[in-house]
Amino acid sequence: MRLPSPFSILKAGIGPSSSHTLGPCLAALDFRRILDGRGLPEGRLRVRLMGSLALTGRGHLTDLAVAAGLAGFDPEKEQRETLRSVNKETARLGRITAGSRTFLFEPEKDVVFDLAARDIPHPNTLAFSVVDSAGATVLEEMYRSVGGGHVLGGGFPAPADGLGEKPSMGAIVDLCLGDGMDLADFALKRLSDEGLSEEETFGRLHGLWEVMADAVDRGLNAEGLLPGTLMLERRASELYRDCQRGIRHYGLFSRDVTLPALYAIAVAEENASGGRVVTAPTCGSAGVLPAVLMMLKERFRLPERKILEALLSAAVVGGIVVENASIAGAEVGCQGEVGVASAMAAAAAVHCLDGSVPQAEAAAETALEHHLGLTCDPVGGLVQIPCIERNAVGAVTALNAANLALLGSGRHAISFDAAVTAMKQVGADMNCKYKETAQGGLAALSQRAEKPD
Ligand code: SF4
């Protein structure tokens, strides 16, 4: 069965967008490796951003991401440097050195938002090229950033279409019930079959959980304006402080509802400011899963092992969607981002509370079903409105879905696989202006046009 590794669904990276920031940065890093091995004449580097990357790339920091990747910034590993600091240095130098070659590169001039590009292979397409001193293109590589930081083209592995059977939740549930496993055991067994020891698996999961928990913590303590033209104030820290002191309307909902919403806002604000988060399944939706797990960990004093297993359960859910539909807002709208994040978190919550595999499926299905049709209409092309609050709502929906599933036997009328198929269909039918173009919905109503910050 062709199910992506949990570590390709959950990846540490930089915000604000896995498809528009992380993926393009990884593509640039890949092109840099290609440059290094080609023995090319020295020339000028050019980057062309097309489709949704051209329309919303400035707000999603795509231009900074590609320039940083070309300069050697690794978004999955880098802890200290930020996109902005790397770019400042690149802009100052006006060139990039890759291996033994130096290329002219001025980000302001050489990264082009190509709004006229047509017939592109994917809504998130980008091309890197080297132009010699006579103006001739001597090398060009085209990439597609297909969501969740996954990239196709260049040196990335080709899609496994046709190789192996597509995963289905139905088949996985049957396997689990037959072998007395839960979704986490199932994922663990697959990793072990691929040669990863349990110790290595949990070591890597621990690292991811640390990044998630840090993002919650940083978000709850940070203040000031988010970057970009909307001039939005960060609010997680103030709301959290007030909630702790019992100020405002804290009495209306229990802490079990309020805290995950605030944790999700904290991570989403970190993401919006270009901070370090874990794709779950994307950066734009990175607040949902940690928020749910953090609340459950605190509320039920769960051991870390339980949380790490819950991450595996969540990754199984995300992997099924990646293989059968999409997690890119530019392909299927926000149902594929926050909707899938909510489904992942719902299954993870059921695992945390010792629910059964059918209950985990029911929870994931309920969460996804009630996000069907959700558009992606980021105001100003920034991952802020509606994205930040949408993470909070997605987290609470996940808990609601888990709660309903745990109250029942796990029997449900619509299967998770059917919900995924419906999501794909709805995404295909959705007007393009609602798919991360900032041309429809809330984005179209906003008077604030996207401008470079
Ligand atoms: S609206 Fe949803 S899909 Fe679109 S950028 Fe925001 S979080 Fe991502």
Polypeptide structure, described:
The protein is α+β, with helices and mostly antiparallel strands and 453 residues long. The chain has two domains: 13-153, 60s Ribosomal Protein L30, Chain: A; 169-445, no CATH class. It has helices at 6-9, 18-38, 52-56, 62-70, 83-93, 107-110, 169-179, 183-193, 198-221, 236-245, 255-272, 288-300, 304-324, 329-332, 338-352, 357-369, 387-407, 416-429, 441-445; strands spanning 12-14, 44-50, 95-98, 101-104, 111-114, 125-131, 137-147, 150-153, 276-278. The strands form three sheets. The chain has a five-stranded mixed β-sheet. A two-stranded antiparallel ribbon has the order 1-9. The longest helix has 24 residues, at 198-221. The radius of gyration is 21 Å and the shape is globular. Iron/sulfur cluster binds next to helix 17.
Helix and strand arrangement:
Layout: H1 6-9, E1 12-14, H2 18-38, E2 44-50, H3 52-56, H4 62-70, H5 83-93, E3 95-98, E4 101-104, H6 107-110, E5 111-114, E6 125-131, E7 137-147, E8 150-153, H7 169-179, H8 183-193, H9 198-221, H10 236-245, H11 255-272, E9 276-278, H12 288-300, H13 304-324, H14 329-332, H15 338-352, H16 357-369, H17 387-407, H18 416-429, H19 441-445
Parallel strand pairs: 2-5
Antiparallel strand pairs: 1-9, 2-6, 3-4, 6-7, 7-8
Bound molecules: iron/sulfur cluster.
